[in-house]
Amino acid sequence: MNENSFKFKQNVLFQYSHALGYFVRLIDIVLVFISAGLSYKFLYHTNYLITAQLAETPETQYFIAAIVGSLVIAFTFPIFRIYRAWRGSSLLDEIAIITMALLVSYIMMLLIVMLMDTNVLFSRVWFLGWFIINWLLIIIVHSGFRFILRWMRYKGANLKNIVIVGAGNLGESIANNLQESLWTGLKIQAFFDDNDSLKNQNFHGIEVVGCVNDVHAYVNTHNIDQVWIALPLRAEKKVKELLLNLKDSSVDLRMVPDIFGLHLLNHSITEVAGMPVLNLSTTPMIGIHRVIKAVEDIVFSLIILFLISPIMLLIAILIKFESPKDPVFFKQKRYGMRGDEICVLKFRTMTVADNDSRYIKQATKNDDRITRLGAFLRKSSLDEIPQFFNVLRGTMSIVGPRPHAVAHNEMYRNLISGYMQRHIVRPGITGWAQVNGWRGETDTLDKMKNRVEYDLYYIENWSLWFDIKIILITVVKGFFNKNAY
After folding, report:
1. What are all long-range contacts of 460-466, with beta carbons under 8 Å and residues at least 24 apart?
2. Domain-by-domain residue ranges, the chain?
3. Are the CB atoms for 187 and 160 separated by under 8 Å?
């Protein structure tokens, strides 16, 4: 590919990027009508699925419903930032956001129908089919666009030329990560650093071509799209000079703060009262993530409680049968989100006298406090299932760090660095530590350290699909565990 052809491809994609965005929005609206029609035709031509509502409701009403659906999706999808640039984000993250946006859209459609106070009845089977087909079509289309753009980047189109200011450890780390992620479409052209000993040296095949003061001239003569600043925090004066020199340039400026030596949790950039703020350690459950997590907890809890209600009733009967005078449930004090005390509900598995929350002794192998039925419930984790009511109350989540006894929290917070960071999210019924074997008795400090390490990894890497993965692993292998006593 010659240079002119390469530049042509880049310019065409850049000039028409906004048009492509609007084209995708139009496609999504068209898919609403297509999926509604496919669901209707499928039910109409499948006799055993025909319902009275489908037969009695005029076809035009379903078309009107599709119009309403398209307007709702045109409103909600931008709120969920579906049409933002997904360069650098995973496909699973995009699918998760699309799924949540679509769920919210269809819930809004149901509310609109209810508030309209109309006598028109729509088939529930048709509505469910509409949602499923629409979800599949949108995922296919958006995935297709993603893979087309990724392929074009590999072929040299839709690339962004960048330079890195700072050839130290941070700059090298940035270069290494970007070169291993070619699908991001970011091509590094040069390094700049004021260390004379680094000039003309190559790092990862990229040359240090000059000092920081040379960046401005290089940007103007080499078709550079972005400047990435990778200078240490102490180089504030140098950063200000660079920003001043590039003031008359249209190049995008990005600064990667030199914070990788710090032990941070879920760090990010945000804006508060018009001021840029660097979050060094914060909960991931803010904004749309908080909504996603709440919907996930409520929907999954209601479904699970509906499915396991017969099992819960049987367990309650068996507990009463084993000890008629003792309660079925008991409450334990635990630390919840932000370290607030909460009451966690469980099936009783021990003798009543020893279930006082003031005791911090963990259950051990062959513990004589545990009842015969309680031993099975603890081994199978069935004693935990009443905690789905805690989830519905908003004090717990289905997935998250397991809550520990208050006394244990006070002890380990002084022994394990970062221990209390587990509480920047709601505690969970199951968690990443538990499905990896770190559950049950923690008779050594190292065992608790490992559990905390997995909990913090979960918080740092949280996503809807990560939660679903943990739930599926729990279902497959997480009920019975050799470490649970």
Report:
1. 460/265, 460/266, 460/284, 462/266, 462/284, 462/285, 462/289, 462/425, 463/92, 463/93, 463/96, 464/96, 464/99, 464/100, 464/292, 464/293, 464/296, 465/92, 465/93, 465/95, 465/96, 466/399, 466/432
2. 3-154, 160-261, 288-478
3. yes
Higher pLDDT, 465 or 55: 465
Residue 372 burial (CB < 10 Å; 0-12/13-18/19+)? exposed
Is domain 160-261 annotated with CATH 3.30.1050.10?
no
Q: What is the pLDDT of residue 384?
A: 86
Q: How many CB atoms are located within 10 Å of the residue 11 CB?
A: 11
For residues 240 and 231, the answer to whether their CB atoms sit within 8 Å is no
Question: Distance of CA 262 to CAs 257, 277, 462, Å?
Answer: 11, 17, 20
Tell whether the model's pLDDT for residue 184 goes beyond 50. yes
Per-residue pLDDT tens over the stretch 59-73 = 777 788 888 888 888
Give the least confident one: 56-60, 450-454, 477-481: 477-481
Residue 442 and residue 336: Cα distance in Å, rounded? Answer: 20
Q: What is the mean pLDDT of residues 379-403?
A: 89
Mean pLDDT to the nearest integer, 361-367 = 56
